[in-house]
UniProtKB/TrEMBL annotation:
InterPro entries: AraC-bd, Homeodomain-like_sf, HTH-like, HTH_AraC, HTH_AraC-typ_CS, Tscrpt_reg_AraC-type_HTH. Pfam families: AraC_binding, HTH_18. It comes from Paenibacillus odorifer. Residues 180-279 form the HTH araC/xylS-type domain. This is HTH araC/xylS-type domain-containing protein. The keyword Cytoplasm does not apply.
Length: 292
């Protein structure tokens, strides 16, 4: 098989989950850089696995090296950037998978909850075998059936979930039970604009000062900043996937009013919520196919 990338396009909307694209490529210059705040596709998710060389990904202000056997899981849009480092000395070779749809977002979040956004995965593992199988289906067997490929993508997600549930493979991102419980509590209560640091600390049974130290030590953010980023990510997704008014989205994501929501949103994305909703960018691929 040869390095390349492929996208399957059809008129069908991703009401739940659809295969989007897959690629086996390498980057050699810092020109390879993707910012999750600027990519405005609707409800897309990315898995990217390092085969050789080294890349970087910055998530919530923390930079993670992506060496051989390491992969990242991110949703789009969200606050992250992955790139080839300026000090790189050899090509960064990787294979990636993109899936789209609201169910894809939900399943990705579950995978991240199990293993964190950065995972280690042996090349001989079942998920990697399935990933290469999908790539072969398209490149060698010229498979163009979107539903067949979606089924393979879903099978891959299930294999990842099974793999990540092994306790020995959990990353430090969620090994701290108190931190993980706080994160889950905050994610489940994003809509509550009265949610306070005291509420979160009381829920997990620690002081708010201890809670702040946990967040700073593990993800280099305050609990408030973490909560605000998750709210903005949810709002960005809702702008692209629903017809709700900007006011209603502001309320549903825990902001007091639309004016404040607009100010915060612009600080992250550089544009107003209404302008962001109107933007329409697609993933870049070398090949675009339409479903048979």
């Amino acid at each position: 098989m040869l390095r390349s990338s492929y996208t399957i396009r059809s008129e069908e909307q991703a009401s739940m989950l659809l295969f989007d694209s897959i690629g086996w490529e390498q980057a050699e210059t810092p020109a390879y850089s993707f910012n999750g705040q600027n990519r405005t596709e609707r409800s897309c998710v990315i898995f990217q696995y390092t085969l050789s060389g080294e890349g970087r990904i910055e998530i919530d202000g923390v930079v993670h090296p992506l060496t051989k056997g390491k992969a990242f899981l991110v949703t789009v849009p969200s606050i992250h950037r992955y790139y080839y480092p300026e000090e790189g000395t050899e090509p960064w070779e990787f294979i990636w998978l993109n899936v789209r749809g609201p169910l894809a977002i939900s399943l990705w979040n579950q995978l991240i909850a199990h293993g964190g956004p950065i995972i280690e995965l042996p090349q001989e593992s079942v998920p990697m075998d399935l990933l290469w199988s999908m790539f072969k289906d398209i490149q060698v067997d010229e498979e163009r059936d979107l539903h067949f490929l979606t089924g393979k993508a879903f099978q891959w997600i299930l294999s990842m979930e099974k793999y990540l549930k092994k306790p020995s493979l959990l990353t430090t991102y969620i090994k701290n039970d108190k931190l993980h419980a706080a994160i889950q509590f905050m994610k489940n209560d994003l809509h509550n604009n009265n949610l306070s640091l005291d509420d979160v600390a009381a829920h997990v049974g620690i002081s708010k000062h201890h809670l702040c130290r946990l967040f700073q030590k593990n993800i280099n953010l305050s609990p408030f900043e973490y909560l605000r980023r998750r709210r903005i990510e949810l709002a960005a997704s809702m702008l692209k996937t629903t017809d709700q008014t900007i006011y209603q989205i502001a309320v549903d994501t825990g902001f007091d009013n639309a004016s404040y929501f607009g100010k915060v949103f612009r600080s992250y994305f550089g544009v107003s919520p209404s302008t962001y909703r109107e933007q329409d960018l697609e993933f870049l691929s070398k090949h675009v196919f339409f479903e048979n």
